[in-house]
């Protein structure tokens, strides 16, 4: 009799276990809640998502805010899914009855890790939206550099609006461009107190209160604030402020003609170059920079230069190899400012080898001719990877729609996306976003606006860069790639018009293959200087064969151009060292990941 009862009970217990959904729980205090059975089918969508910071410390609370397309008529179930690469690390259902919703999550303990967060109505998963998430204890491993350039008196609400927008792009460092008074004396206190206002080199008004307010607002979003200045600049009257002739650079051995960077007549002064390797000049400018740090809570110094200046000589008539002075200047600056960050610009790669071998945390290149094409842009990114032995990431100051911005108008969205796709796929970042998008080397220049379409695309691309930072920028190295297709396009190993550029990176247990689509490109000029680049059509069903001897366990794809950036598993076959798969669609950029056993 007992045996007859025991068998049904066992069967019933197994049945109950099978009906309980298994969920991966990130922490004990969060549980997967079952959906509300009364939630109706809905056409409500998630319009926007925002996080409260640009990056998070491991274990730090994360606050999310989202806005729905409309207020639910009844209680609505929202599914929140947290991804790391193609793995779901946590899921949660929350019930909402307002148009604006908020919730929190605790950042995982693993440092320097990117996540994607998806929010969708449970009964309308096509109404989803996503956001990237960076858990990093410092900004310099995955720098996402922005800028500020207008420090006139302005309402705090206007400043907050600008910082909040940059926060949505996950900008984690800000270059405060030309905020200072004079290059050789960036801040001139009176009676040991800073002036309330002054004019910068271009005679534009600067408010001390605005500068400090922006620094505070940046810090409130976990953004670093970097004080911009040259390493070797002095104005015409600098001798009155203690800059000695013996520290200057000259264009002749007889010290008759100063080395000068000419500026417009209505600016304060031309810039007279000093010798970066001169110890007395270093002590002078370091003291001036310390005055800045004493009165403004900057996190570091963005050190600028002016590129190759041809032959220059010191006060003794000896030739000076400017690029060879950079490393020594940087190392002495690091010893002087131990608790500050230092970043240095390599204009057209001038001095980049020395900077890469210094303590600078990442590389920064301002691009000019002859780096015109996508291929030449690509070479700079790969050269920086080689110079730093893959240990330092790159930020490019690359100015878009340069000639178009001579008149008022809007940025050309395809030109921006082609360039960002290449930079991001190669592990770089693009200095382009501030109060406005950059189009000129003079950062306050602001004649082109971003369309709403471009603003939304920038959100998608920056989410993608953050969500997949561990595949794009985290110790990946170049890998060989043998790939072919018999479909509608030729695959190339360099960017070429009318083709798809493919290349691979590798990590220990995976290979990352990038597909950059130039099939419909009007031209191959990354700057898209006149704004004539055309939008590519969406192509589909690209079947490729990759030579791959290692056994592949899984293949997945992601793109900033479709599926909200989320990973999608792909079917594949692998036989005799050949792996075949089909890419469902491509617009600008697809990323395919091969996961090995």
UniProtKB/TrEMBL annotation:
InterPro entries: Glyco_hydro_66, Glyco_hydro_b, Ig-like_fold
UniProt keyword Transcription, yes or no: no
Pfam families: Glyco_hydro_66
Domain of life: Bacteria
Family: Belongs to the glycosyl hydrolase 66 family.
Keywords for this protein: Signal, Transferase
Single GO MF descriptor: transferase activity
Native species: Pontibacillus chungwhensis BH030062
Protein name listed in UniProt: Cycloisomaltooligosaccharide glucanotransferase
């Amino acid at each position: 009799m007992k045996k007859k009862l025991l068998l049904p009970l066992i069967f019933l217990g197994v049945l109950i276990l099978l009906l309980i959904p298994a969920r991966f729980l990130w922490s004990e205090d969060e549980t997967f809640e079952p959906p509300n059975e009364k939630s109706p089918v809905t056409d409500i969508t998630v319009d926007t998502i925002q996080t409260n910071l640009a990056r998070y410390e491991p274990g730090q609370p994360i606050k999310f805010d989202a806005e729905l397309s409309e207020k639910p008529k009844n209680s609505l179930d929202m599914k929140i899914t947290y991804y790391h690469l193609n793995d779901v690390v946590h899921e949660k259902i929350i019930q909402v009855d307002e148009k604006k919703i908020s919730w929190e999550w605790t950042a995982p303990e693993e440092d320097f890790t990117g996540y994607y967060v998806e929010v969708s109505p449970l009964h309308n998963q096509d109404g989803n939206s996503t956001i990237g998430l960076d858990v990093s204890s410092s900004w310099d491993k995955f720098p996402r550099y922005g800028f500020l350039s207008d420090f006139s008196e302005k309402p705090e609400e206007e400043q907050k609006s600008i910082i909040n927008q940059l926060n949505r792009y996950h900008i984690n460092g800000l270059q405060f461009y030309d905020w200072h008074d004079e290059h050789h004396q960036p801040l001139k206190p009176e009676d040991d107190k800073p002036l309330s206002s002054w004019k910068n080199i271009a005679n534009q008004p600067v408010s001390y209160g605005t500068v400090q307010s922006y620094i505070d607002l940046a810090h409130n979003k976990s953004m670093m604030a970097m004080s911009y200045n040259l390493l070797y600049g002095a104005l015409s009257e600098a001798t009155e402020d203690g800059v000695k002739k013996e520290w200057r650079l000259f264009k002749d051995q007889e010290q008759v003609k100063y080395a000068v960077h000419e500026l417009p007549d209505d600016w304060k002064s031309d810039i007279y170059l000093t010798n970066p390797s001169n110890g007395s000049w270093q002590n002078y400018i370091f003291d001036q920079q310390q005055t800045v740090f004493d009165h403004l809570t900057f996190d570091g110094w963005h050190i600028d230069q002016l590129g190759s200046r041809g032959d220059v000589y010191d006060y003794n008539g000896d030739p000076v190899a400017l690029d060879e002075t950079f490393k020594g200047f940087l190392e002495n600056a690091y010893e002087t400012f131990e608790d500050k960050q230092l970043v240095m610009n390599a204009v057209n790669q001038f001095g980049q080898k020395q900077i890469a071998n210094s303590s600078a945390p990442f590389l920064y290149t301002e691009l000019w001719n002859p780096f015109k094409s996508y291929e030449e842009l690509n070479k700079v990114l790969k050269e920086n990877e080689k110079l730093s032995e893959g240990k330092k990431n790159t930020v490019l100051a690359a100015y878009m729609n340069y000639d178009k911005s001579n008149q008022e108008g809007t940025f050309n969205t395809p030109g921006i996306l082609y360039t960002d796709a290449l930079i991001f796929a190669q592990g770089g970042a693009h200095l382009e976003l501030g109060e406005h998008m950059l189009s000129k080397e003079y950062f306050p220049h602001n004649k082109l606006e971003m369309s709403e379409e471009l603003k939304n695309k920038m959100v998608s691309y920056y989410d993608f860069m953050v969500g997949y930072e561990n595949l794009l920028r985290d110790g990946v190295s170049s890998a060989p790639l043998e790939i072919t297709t018999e479909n509608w396009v030729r695959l190339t190993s360099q960017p070429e018009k009318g083709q798809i550029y493919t290349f691979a990176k590798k990590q220990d247990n995976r290979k990352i293959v990038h597909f950059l689509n130039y099939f419909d490109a009007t031209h191959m000029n990354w700057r898209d200087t006149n704004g004539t680049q055309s939008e590519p059509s969406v192509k589909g069903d690209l079947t490729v064969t990759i030579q791959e001897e290692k056994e592949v366990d899984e293949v997945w794809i992601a793109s900033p151009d479709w599926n909200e950036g989320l990973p999608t598993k792909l079917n594949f076959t692998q036989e005799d060292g050949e792996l075949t798969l089909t890419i469902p669609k491509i617009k600008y950029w697809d990323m395919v990941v091969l996961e090995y056993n």
